[in-house]
Amino acid sequence: MDQTPEIVIDAKDRIMGLHKGLGIIESFDENNPKMTIADAARLNDLTRSAVRRHLLTLTELGYVETDGKYYWLSTKVLNFANAYLTSSRLPRVLTPFLQRITMNIGETAQASVLEKNEVVYIAKNSPPKIINAGWDVGRRMNPFLVTPGLVMLANIPEDKFKKLLDQYKPQPFTPFTMISKKDIEKFILDIRTKGYGITSQQYELGVIGAAVPLRDRKGQLLGAISVTAPTSRTTPDQMRDAAVPALLDCAQIIREII
After folding, report:
1. Do residue 111 and residue 238 come from a single domain?
2. CB atoms < 10 A from the CB of 32, how many?
3. Full-model pTM
4. Which domain holds residue 192?
5. H/E segment holding residue 228
6. How many H-runs (helices) and E-runs (strands) does the chain carry?
7. pLDDT given for residue 13 in this prediction
8. C-alpha to C-alpha distance for 29 and 42, rounded to whole angstroms
9. Are both 133 and 209 inside the same structural domain?
10. For the chain, what is the domain count?
11. Does residue 1 or residue 110 have the better pLDDT?
12. What is the DSSP letter of 35?
């Protein structure tokens, strides 16, 4: 599927306590690894008393830990990720193919999907090297900043792509980040023509990425598979000659079995 459809339910069917509790969990990130009640209230636009009750409940359930002032997520939150990884067929199917790609070219291979306008990495395999590139499973990224995201954007309906591009506010994360929307449109067209995408240091200095779309036997877009490598070990031309054929080969086999 291109994206998970947005579901709107009646207010009477919505459990707001669950909605708020999950929102508080999601507000913890690399910029907010630990928060006070006031911090969480500000980020979630809730009253301090409401946040206090939610955090205390989450602490009682074991999903949050506290020293009395600060709150942080416990490892029990990983149960959510594990539930997805063990119940979803896609990561299980893709993992052996990612291992095959890594074995053939010696670089990190990943699989990702487009979920609510974000790239979510669902599987990864890395070589036993000191320096590995790529994002961890569960990481969410803006699709305009990573190669698999751009590849998936090139394979969704044009009206959806245009809407996302209109909403996108480019920032120069590196000197090589595409910040012109015309350049982005040109890059997307190039992906559609070639069937793959390669970026160099688009979001992070020293990282090159290559990606191809992943489809099922009906031709529906499932996501993307990609390879990331440090610029110290490869070049865009080398990625084109080595990584792209390996990705396309696996994508074709996967399409025949899903």
Report:
1. yes
2. 12
3. 0.79
4. 88-257
5. strand 221-230
6. 10, 8
7. 83
8. 15
9. yes
10. 2
11. 110
12. B
